[in-house]
Each structure stands twice: as C-alpha cells, then as structure tokens.
Specification:
By secondary structure, this protein is an alpha/beta fold. The chain contains ten helices and eight strands. It has an eight-stranded parallel sheet. It has a single domain, classed as Metal-dependent hydrolases (TIM Barrel). Helix 4 packs parallel to helix 5.
Length: 264
C-alpha cells in the first residue's frame, strides 16, 4: 500500500511511525509540504528512507493565510530551488497548494491564497511536477482557476477530497486523481464522492497526524492506512488487497516512482 498524503515529519517519532506503517503493509509515503520552515525537515526525512519516503514541497493555503505578503513572496521565491533539490532531496510533486474557504481561515487572506495558488500552478507547469491540491469549500473557484490556468502535463491529485459527488466528474475531466483519507470512514458525502472515482484515478491517504479513521483518537498514524483502504474497497465492492494495489499503482504512475516496494 502507498500513503498518498501525510505529514510523517509531524508524527511524533517519524522513525517509529515509519516502522509501524511498514509492519502494517504501508510501504510508500508521499510527505506533503506546508511552508519553508518544514521543507528542510521533510527533505532530511526523505534522505533517511529514500525507497519509502517521497516528497511534495509547496506553500499550503493555511501558511499563505498566516503570512504577510512579503513572507509569501519570499517563500514562493525559495520554492524553485527547493524543487530542484537544493535542500538535499528532490521532490516528486508540488504541494500542498490550493484554496481554503473554511471558517478557520481568515477571509482577508483570500486574494493572497488565489495569488499563491496561481503562482504555484505556473511553477508546476514550468517544471512539470504533479500538484497536490488542498481544496476546502472552494471547489467551484478552484475549478475556475484550474481550467483557466491549466495543470502540468503530469497532472495531480485532490488530497482528502471533500468534493461533492456531482463535481467529481469535473475534476476527473481535468485528468486529476482524487484521494480519500479518514473522511471516507466517517462521512456518507465522502463515500458518495469516492464511489464516482474510477479505480484508475483513486488514491488512499492518511493525512497523518490529522484525520484519524473512525474509531481512533488523534493523532493519526500512517499505520492506519489499511482501514481507509478497507473503507474504499467497501465502496467499490472489491477486495481490500486489490484496492490497495490499484491505489499504489496509481501513485507510482502519478508520481513517477519506481515500481518496486509499493505493494504489500
């Protein structure tokens, strides 16, 4: 199995979390970037487990919301070098990037979020890295930007998809994959959206240490990915082992990873 989105560097003892995940059959991880303060930490982690830990580096909309314009500009200016391996590891994707219109994010950051989103999309197209999209309560707005600006030819994923089922075809039509986390074990809305995603566009993630599956308290752990895979397998009425293999293959293709070591 492959955890298509987590924050392993924030999981208490990352080495222990990685070992527990491996024991549970989770043999690959995409660790998502949030802000420059975390990029070096994430790269250092990837260096310790190069066949297991892969990186996405980007500027998360939450980070954009808490930073002022100058700090956002500085982060965006530093991103190309980080993507080129300047921090010691070369990412396989750009992200998280996107839009967040939840009440937890200040409304006065919206124009800044849009600017950072479009800037990172342009960079992803220039370097042809798939994007890891964070979209919360902004699906129509995000689709408008994705359609007008365009995605990299390598595509991307909507992480922890909270997409209404009727909008799933719009994201699929752009060539995107959709990934589901603990939300698919808790909410009918997520299960309805997951049911609309064909197996060759489906990804499974933990978003650890956030979003634990139903029946588990925070913090979440990558070792719990099998429960999310099982929930997705139930939605698609296929065996969990087959579903996990599909998702791992999808991640390998999307992020252009070596085929070995992603199944288990």
């Amino acid at each position: 199995m492959f955890d298509a989105h987590n924050h392993l560097d924030l999981c208490g003892d990352p080495a222990l979390a990685l070992a527990e995940a491996t024991k549970a059959g989770v043999l690959g991880h995409l660790v998502a970037g949030v802000d420059p303060a975390g990029w070096q930490r994430q790269c250092d982690l990837a260096v310790t487990a190069p066949q297991r830990v892969f990186l996405a580096l980007g500027l998360h909309p939450w980070a954009v919301a808490r930073l002022d314009d100058d700090a956002v500009d500085a982060a965006l200016a530093a991103l190309p070098a980080a993507l080129d391996g300047a921090l010691g590891a070369r990412p396989v994707a750009l992200g998280e990037l996107g839009l967040d219109r939840s009440r937890a994010v200040p409304a006065d950051s919206r124009s800044r979020q849009r600017r950072a989103f479009r800037h990172q999309l342009a960079l992803a197209r220039a370097v042809d890295l798939p994007v890891v999209l964070h979209i919360v309560r902004a699906h129509g707005e995000a689709l408008e930007i994705l359609r007008s600006d365009g995605l990299p030819s390598s595509g991307g994923m909507v992480h922890s998809a909270s997409t209404p089922a009727d909008l799933v075809p719009a994201f699929l039509s752009l060539g995107l994959h959709l990934s589901f986390a603990g939300n698919v074990t808790r909410h009918d809305k997520a299960r309805a959206a997951a049911a609309c995603v064909p197996l060759d566009r489906l990804l499974a993630e933990t978003d650890a240490p956030d979003q634990p599956p139903a029946g588990h308290d925070a913090p979440n752990r990558p070792a719990l990915l099998p429960e999310i895979v099982a929930a997705l397998a139930a939605v698609h009425a296929v065996p969990a082992e087959r579903l996990g293999r599909h998702c791992a293959d999808n991640a390998r293709r999307l992020f252009r990873l070596p085929p070995a070591s992603l199944h288990g």
